[in-house]
Amino acid sequence: MDDEASSTLRDTLTAFLTESHFQRLIRYLGLKSTDDKLLMNLWTLHSVPAAAYNSGQIYLEPDSPNPDDHLQKTTYYILQIPTPRTSPALTTYEGRPIRSEDDVVFSTDDPQTMPLPSAFLFGIHARFCNSLRQLRIQNQVKRGWPEKSTWNVALNIPRAILHKTSLSIRPVWLYFPKIVRLTAYQILLYLGFKLYGRPLAWVQRVPFGLYIKHGPGKFVPGGEGPALTLVEQHTNISAPRLFEVLTNADHTYLVMTRVPGIPLEAASPFMSYPERAQLGVELRSLVSQLRSIPNPNTASICSASGGPVFDYRFPGNPKTAGPFESEEDFNKHLITQERLRSSTHDQTHRIYFSHADLNPNNILVSGGKLSGVVDFGLAGFYPEYWEYTKAVYTHFGPDTYWLDILSDIFSGSYQEQLEAERKIWEVTPPW
Q1: Is the pLDDT of residue 146 over 60?
Q2: Where is the Aminoglycoside phosphotransferase domain (predicted)?
Q3: Residue 223 above 80 pLDDT?
Q4: Which residues does 383 contact at the CB level (< 8 Å), separation at least 6?
């Protein structure tokens, strides 16, 4: 670092880290152990989290920085996952999902011969985290979408065959005894956990191109199965196809086909502006098709099956309400205080079938294009503005690309309704 060729890099690092931190980093990098039995600053990881760490998609923050941390027997860190997340969901070796703000504990029996990794070095990595993420994004954009590679295009053929095969055996499968089907689903859940991990406790990818949502109560809303059926019957939207909803005692298994693609949340940093604009066009068509689905029920605002609607947006607990005979009855449930009433609540809106949970995690993208939409657990028949305001409700963070896409989808409509909803959101927590 003392030669003339390295002077520019030195000046840049000094400005980024400060002179004292730069000098300390140089000392660490030049440190050599004179004892072959001494292991220093060694942290072994599985290949998936190692790749995420190396590319700045995760980093560690010391819980309480200590200059002599490496001499302690135990140190504590907080795992951070920057947003938007651009890596696959991470799990522990037990299959438990790893989330931002999780605790990470390092321990050693002998700090003298096996000292813990330095918190200083973890801090240096955290400083470079955003730059590492941007470098990864830049490199992937140069390579192009992996879904368009010859290998992935070839894989789409057996995937399509498997999808059609699964749907073709669906009517026959339902004639098998319930105990046989139940046992098969439990075996598939076990195999899926071993093969794919379990990023979500209640949704499991399993073999044969299927997903199983399972659990009691709110984990499998009663209207989700009927919603998938309506979408299949009345649209050509790429969405999960319902295989079966099987209930055993208080546990429900919703079995459905897998939709290809990755969440928009992970894909958005790699998408060009024309691709984002085209996505808005494709989502506008999707919403239009959803709105064309007729209501086969007598209630006006209800789930796809005509029963209560389920939504974390609703006040109180449980988060189910209705069915409602009119929008006026629906508003009475939403407005918990008279001061929250707005003029828009006196208006009459058209009632449409709505996904009611459009967000970048439920919209799937493949090769920069819309490949499908998932998670119809909150779907039902709602006032026309509900699809838009709920999509805004789930947005957080400084990146406004999703709000821009929503503006394209709904042509800037429903701003008055959004302001009325925001007043209610302030006093209606989603838990």
Answers
A1: yes
A2: 237-394
A3: yes
A4: 301, 327, 330, 349, 350, 351, 352
